[in-house]
Write a structure and sequence with these properties.
Length: about 150
């Protein structure tokens, strides 16, 4: 009986740094030349860029299985907590801290390093603009990088 010795799937994580330069705008369709009044829409960016976040790093899974990506896509159409729970294991570590009401600062465990059904709540403890970058990295980290063969 043949055995499967050619390939073993292992999760692979990479550290991603918050970019020092703003992202490129997303591509938009050019207006139809047949419509002289058509205007080019304002550029749309994948996330807002804020220099205050320079130095933030996340360790993200860059090779999710097809089943994981499929579940992520399906979860986009459910309440936010469902979506965040599905992608929680994709962010294994980060260097984000939060300040409590009393002024103390503590490291915030990443969703993937916190076990249990509430692991995804860490996403709700960070600033919205930073969360948008984290989500961008989670959603695109497995895609080919520019210049990749």
């Amino acid at each position: 009986m043949p055995t499967a010795t050619g390939y073993t799937y292992r999760r692979h994580y990479e550290w991603v740094d918050y970019p020092t330069e703003p992202p490129e705008p997303l591509p938009v369709a050019a207006p139809d030349d047949a419509e002289p009044e058509a205007t080019v829409p304002d550029p749309v960016y994948p996330f807002p860029h804020d220099p205050a976040f320079h130095g933030v790093r996340i360790e993200v899974m860059v090779n999710p299985s097809y089943a994981e990506v499929r579940e992520e896509v399906r979860a986009k159409y459910r309440p936010d907590d469902d979506y965040f729970a599905v992608i929680a294991p994709r962010v294994r570590a980060w260097n984000i801290q939060v300040e409590a009401a009393d002024g103390t600062v503590a490291s915030l465990p990443a969703p993937g390093e916190t076990a249990g059904e509430n692991a995804h709540l860490a996403y709700g403890a960070i600033e919205t603009d930073l969360l948008l970058w984290v989500l961008h990295v989670v959603r695109t980290g497995h895609r080919p990088k520019s210049g990749a063969a």
